[in-house]
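Appendix C: a fully annotated inverse folding record. The material below is reproduced so that readers can follow the format used throughout the book. The structure is listed first as tokens, followed by the designed sequence.
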């Protein structure tokens, strides 16, 4: 299954160590209305797993609990395949100089 650019950006952010929705939003510059549905969709496909932060940890930090997202093995494999496809396609279009 081919990934959308949004899904690819979200998976790349998770692969780079961004674990929370707001972190993914900062890394990708995508809005919450794009990131959170993408995370849910990727989780339903088995590419992302999530878990809720411990209540005590959130309370000590004086904030609501956060959901922690991480790539699954399948997600890492699919990301690697998608990156290879996008690199191959990019080679078909040589860079042009500015006019």
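Designed amino acids, in order:
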């Amino acid at each position: 299954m081919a990934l959308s650019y949004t899904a690819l950006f979200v998976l790349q952010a998770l692969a780079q160590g961004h674990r929370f929705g707001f972190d993914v939003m900062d890394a990708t510059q995508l809005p919450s209305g794009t990131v959170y549905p993408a995370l849910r969709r990727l989780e339903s496909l088995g590419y992302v797993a999530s878990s809720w932060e411990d209540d005590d940890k959130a309370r000590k930090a004086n904030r609501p609990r956060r959901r922690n997202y991480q790539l699954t093995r399948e997600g890492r494999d699919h990301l690697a395949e998608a990156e290879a496809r996008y690199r191959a396609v990019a080679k078909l279009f040589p860079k042009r100089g500015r006019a």
